[in-house]
Amino acid sequence: MFRHNPIAAFLFRFLVLYLLLALPWPGVDWVYGVCFRAMARMVFAGRSGWAIFWGMFCYHCCLLLALDFVIWTESAEISLVSFTPFWKHATDGIRENTMGQIGLGVPIVIWMLVTYLRPDFSDLERPREGSLIAQTPKLQPGDGDAGLA
């Protein structure tokens, strides 16, 4: 149909797909609602759901602060703010460190803070009966050197 004009062929396919997705399909809206509510109940049913919520909230706040810092430091490049050489070097180092840690370091710290509760930390000091820490075998003095001999 559109052999000579690939742009027209793409636009035609896109329009057909868009119309299929945009048209109301009777009977499908309740399926979407049921699936959405089931997923929400599964995610927010317990402690893990709230940990996901607070973790994502904290991570997005950290992303927002990092973005604010990057915009602030880049404003020196267009002469909105002027830094002395010391502060220019310091802000460049902080920006590089922030951008390097925002992908892995910050999410791990936030995950630890929102996942573990006070009883979990007290288990590290005095393990409760049946906890994973209580089931871990205790090392005796000299056991760590056994593999070196």
Proportion of residues in helical segments: 55-70%
The total of beta strands comes to: 0
Question: Proportion of β residues?
Answer: under 5%
Write down the overall mean pLDDT. Answer: 76
Helix/strand structural class: mainly alpha
Please, what is the oligomeric state? single chain
Q: Main sheet?
A: none
What is the straight-line distance between the termini?
77 Å
- Uncertain ranges: none
- Give me the strand/helix succession: HHHHHHH
Overall geometry comes to flat
Q: Radius of gyration, Cα only, in angstroms?
A: 27 Å
By DSSP (H or I, 4+ residues per run), the number of helices equals 7
Provide the descriptors you would attach to this structure in a database record:
149 residues, single chain, 67% helix, mainly alpha, 7 helices
Molecular structure report:
It is a single chain. The chain has helices at residues 6-22, 29-43, 47-74, 85-101, 105-115, 118-125, 132-135. The longest helix has 28 residues, at 47-74. Helix 3 (47-74) runs antiparallel to helix 4 (85-101) and helix 3 runs antiparallel to helix 5. It is flat, with a radius of gyration of 27 Å. By secondary structure, it is mainly alpha-helical. 1% of the residues are buried. The mean pLDDT is 76. It has a domain at 46-127.
Fold blueprint:
Elements lengths: L5 H17 L6 H15 L3 H28 L10 H17 L3 H11 L2 H8 L6 H4 L14
Could you give a quick summary of the protein structure above?
The chain is mostly helical and 149 residues long.
